[in-house]
Amino acid sequence: MFIHYDGPMPQRSPQHHEERRDHILAAALRVFSRDGFQAASMADIIAEAQVSAGSIYRYFPSKADLAAAAGKSVFLPASAPLRQIIESGEVVRPTEAMGRLFAGLIERATAGDTDYTALTVDAWAYAQRDEGLRTELAEVYNGIRNNLHILVTRWRDAGHLPADADTWGLTIALAAVMPGLLLQRQMLGTVDAPAALTAFAVHAGI
Amino acid sequence: MFIHYDGPMPQRSPQHHEERRDHILAAALRVFSRDGFQAASMADIIAEAQVSAGSIYRYFPSKADLAAAAGKSVFLPASAPLRQIIESGEVVRPTEAMGRLFAGLIERATAGDTDYTALTVDAWAYAQRDEGLRTELAEVYNGIRNNLHILVTRWRDAGHLPADADTWGLTIALAAVMPGLLLQRQMLGTVDAPAALTAFAVHAGI
Amino acid sequence: MFIHYDGPMPQRSPQHHEERRDHILAAALRVFSRDGFQAASMADIIAEAQVSAGSIYRYFPSKADLAAAAGKSVFLPASAPLRQIIESGEVVRPTEAMGRLFAGLIERATAGDTDYTALTVDAWAYAQRDEGLRTELAEVYNGIRNNLHILVTRWRDAGHLPADADTWGLTIALAAVMPGLLLQRQMLGTVDAPAALTAFAVHAGI
Amino acid sequence: MFIHYDGPMPQRSPQHHEERRDHILAAALRVFSRDGFQAASMADIIAEAQVSAGSIYRYFPSKADLAAAAGKSVFLPASAPLRQIIESGEVVRPTEAMGRLFAGLIERATAGDTDYTALTVDAWAYAQRDEGLRTELAEVYNGIRNNLHILVTRWRDAGHLPADADTWGLTIALAAVMPGLLLQRQMLGTVDAPAALTAFAVHAGI
DNA sequence: GATGAATGAGGTTTCATTCAT
DNA sequence: GATGAATGAAACCTCATTCAT
Fold this sequence. Notes:
Helix content of chain A: over 70%
Shape of chain A: elongated
Oligomer: homotetramer
Largest interface: A-B, 49 and 49 residues
Largest sheet of chain A: none
Radius of gyration of chain A: 20 Å
């Protein structure tokens, strides 16, 4: 049994542990996205990760933990594009920012052999009965909303919206559009993101 | 030479069959909404329906069929409020119509012992790997969009929108908001529907 | 529900009962020969016979009874050809008689939609654990042996065998050949009956 | 950079696997011979083997596989006595060889707690609807016939049969006798093997 | 730390039979 | 007599998890 490792050479470093964990989680994500959280069996994941049954339980104490970790890793990176824009100080039309966020999601979804879009929808269902994952998800979505609100405010302050515009209302409406677009992609195969966002931009002014 | 048997023929009304089927399906919906499609076991449903194990299979040949029927019955009634408005000829602000639709969903969700909102999110996940249910869902959502477009057009024709307004873009944007609001309710417990729809109404004019 | 009946016209004659029973048994034979005694389900037989579930139990109290009746009806007609020869007084070479018997079996096997050869092998297995069927089978095979012995004796008396020939030994040897030939047909698809019987005839003189 | 794990590696001998498999198969043979292939339940076999339900499926993926393996192990050793005689170079009267073969079958049948004779008849029935087992059986029976033909030829060459004797015909006739004798034992309880084979020997000269 | 064979509760489904109509 | 919906025990098989090596 050989394991690839390219850091320094401690016999059993925490780094080694984390690498192994990531390796297993990546395999789990592939299997989960292919078969769904519940249909995926530990045996499938074990085979995909090329790890022994006993070993996997050293890194994830149960299938539920593995699923939770998978859900977490699905949501976490979602808000990166917005943070990036905020940190750059760029003044961007909020719909444009959301367009980039959505494009990023889709790109990540189709890049490798893990379908993150499918996983996201699965995670929604799973989170309904898993408080930990639900909290995780809530935080991520609140983060997105807060970031989006910053952009909306900035857009108003740049003079593109009236001074008394309902920035929170606009933020909420815009943020609420994302799951719908994502779901549309999964169910219908088509994506109307540009049309929806353009209409937003033209009529609501954001 | 033929003999016709005309002794007492057992009366088996087709109505009875449908009643029994509905009874089982209702029980399944309760269990599915409580535990999720896959975590729910046939034994749970059998217990909830107070039916024998063998009996349930006369009405639904497999658990998958039961799940499909459950999914179907979740989606089907969703679009009723819009159809009602259209048929009444009423000229309603589209955001107002969507507000009613959402309110209807929430009301139905919390009325009995079947949480239809949870079931809807589960069905999204399930549909990703079940073509039949996916088709069903696609039809229902297309129906909603088409109905909504009728209302948007009517709203424009009533002079509330410029003649060259992008009715389809507005429709898509507005329709895409629903899953997000529904999801928000399930994940965060809060509902920003009024805020979101009001913002829409004020800024986009619909 | 129409039942064909062409005797006189009593409302519920014993004859009607027997006809119905035969109809069911014939259906059972078709299903049993197609799927095997145990793999065949009562539902299959019910469907094949176009009879109601309740009705079939009026004629055969259990599946075992139906199987026993089926086995019985498989063995019974087997010995007819030998009896016919004996009654005709014809002096026939015993191997020739066995050839006719075997030909009769094969012909019956392939005539209709009931494969009696397959049923026979199934019945052997079934009879191992069903005393009634085993007794039935024993009687039929003893009958065949006794009849065959008559033919062998007659053949010796006609001067074709030495006066001190072991007629019982020859009978037993010849009778024992039948199951082997039948089995060969079922397993290998080929039939060496002529070769085997000719060799018998040439070398053993019968 | 690769790290080789060289801690204690669990010893899993392939021998252990085969032993366990044989243990399970032996238990299955006992149960199958007692109750028949289909009436025997996996639960029965599991109990007889004193193995867990899950474990048995590691060695035999399905009941059908277990039945096939059982059938195989029933037929395979059947032809050993003939091969032994051939290899010893001994010139034996073919009927004598068949007598030994039959005696061997009966002895094996009654030695332990597995009735191989019953299993053989069950396997015939089973093989009618299982191509794999049918092929297996065909090969074994062809092997027996070929070996028997060698003995018949050898017997002729030793001057005990005329030079132009139909060796194949005699072989086929003699081989066809075995199933009949076996069946007779199972159905009637008696065995006429000596009588039948002696008659063969005296009259047909083999 | 790592392995994978073993576990056994629990999953879905079938099927011979009964009985109210 | 006839019907077929209902029954429920029992069938085969899976799978998350453990533990001796």
